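Listing S7. Sequence submitted for prediction.
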Amino acid sequence: DSHFGFQGRLATVFWYLNDVAQGGETIFPKHGQPVCEPLSRGGPGTRHCEGSEDPDMTSCAKGLKVPPRQGSVVLWYNFHPSGRGDRNSLHAGCPV
């Protein structure tokens, strides 16, 4: 499945080097959505299952937000144990 775009990166670590007065959060907009296995969503060619939609990536209004705090570290995995990419690891940076 090349459509996930994870480029073989098993895990991601963000280490915040600075504090930010306002904004700058790392947001996980798919937080709380179900994990979709290929058979439950119609096979490898289908990107969604019920309750799991692609979020609006231009907004920081909905999702899990991690504020940048100096010395904090965030770790997440980009793949399921099966080796399939995890679309719920989608993340973005909010404006400062």
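Caption to Listing S7: primary sequence and predicted structure tokens for the chain studied. The mean pLDDT is 82. Strands lie at 11-15, 26-28, 64-66, 73-77, 92-93.
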